[in-house]
Amino acid sequence: MYTAPSEVPAVNSGLMPPFYLAVLDALPVAVIVTDFSGHILYLNPAALRLIGMNRDSVRGHQLSDAITLLDGTSRQAVGDPLTRFISRSERPRSGEFDVLQLARGVEIPVEYSCAILRGLNQNSDGIVLLLRDATTLRELAQEATHDSLTRLTNRHQFELRLGRLLETLRPGDAHALLYMDLDHFKEINDTYGHAAGDFILCQVAELFVSRIRERDTLARLGGDEFVLLLEHCPIALANEHAEAISRAISGKEFSWSGVSIRLAVSVGAVAIVSRTQTTSSVLAAADRACYAVKRRAGTGRTSRFARFRLFPAHQQEAQPIPTTRRHS
Q1: Mean of the pLDDT values across residues 198-214?
Q2: CB under 8 Å to 190, separation ≥6 — which residues?
Q3: Which of 60, 159, 173, 262 is the most buried (most CB within 10 A)?
């Protein structure tokens, strides 16, 4: 992450003296200079490479004709950074993995900063826009926050998200956490190998993703354990989500090298209703609920429908409803 100064020292000879041009041309960061109307006056070679255009084709054109910036999370246009900077509707900033949308349809994750350029072109002012290709940085950030196999949120990032939710919990808020553990998954690894197990885990992750709301957070804790944070979700609705997930898993026929594989999932749950709860206590309570369901379910079948009861935060032990069994 980098941040540009709010102003750049004066440049008084023509557009820029050769010394400044040589420095800018050598920078690995994309530099675009415009006037206050947004007309492009200069691009360094890094900027030309980034946007995939030549200097003559864009000089004098509006910056908005060449690039569009999208919010990296919402995918909504963030507006012309130059216009927002000039109007002071936002402070000089360094964007965090916004998306640069080019005229040819290509999208690139970027960081950007704006600064005032004083004394440009015989004492008129201009704006300098710095753009940095953040593809590698985003990939590193993705690796730090997501599970390498399933690409779901990883445990560390999930715990941070849960912690933030607990810190902002208000009276009357009701959230829930589902703890999901695939049954007898070790047998798949032992019988068909770890490659088969990894393939099935990815398929399970995709199925989970298809069953959740956009605001929910799904993570893989490790092995065959997954957690789902249901925000602003009353208990009855949390049960419905869990039942839908359980049915989806038990009703899905997974396949590996021509072999049909059936799975079942044990689901434990905890209500998140008190700021006295901690990240570790919530996860531990949900884990206990999941274990209780798995322990009562017994063995000797290929799938089951796991039912449970959400319990108040002050209770120490889960109270799972006995499982309905379906024998093979």
Answers
A1: 93
A2: none
A3: 159
Which distant-in-sequence residues (6+ apart) come within 8 Å of 278 by Cβ?
166
CA distance 205 to 227: 11
**What confidence tier does 176 reach under pLDDT thresholds 50, 70, 90?**
very high
Rounded to whole angstroms, the Cα distance separating 237 from 175 reads 10
Q: Which residue has the tokens 């309570």?
A: 285
- List helix spans (H) across 168-278: 185-192, 194-210, 235-251
Q: Say if residue 93 is exposed, middle or buried (CB neighbours under 10 Å; 0-12, 13-18, 19+).
A: middle
In the predicted structure, residue 291 carries a pLDDT above the cut 90: no
Per DSSP bridges, beta strands 107-119 and 7-8 are parallel
Q: How far apart are CA 242 and CA 248, in angstroms?
A: 10
Model pTM? Answer: 0.59
pLDDT band (50, 70, 90) for residue 292: confident
How far is residue 96 CA from its own chain's centroid? Answer: 13
Could you give the CA distance from residue 310 to residue 218 in angstroms, rounded to a whole number? 19
Residue 67 buriedness (CB in 10 A; 0-12 / 13-18 / 19+):
buried
Domains of the chain from N-terminus onward: 7-139 (3.30.450.20), 146-326 (3.30.70.270)
Alpha-carbon distance 110 to 135, whole Å? 7
Does the structure show a pLDDT above 60 at 49? yes
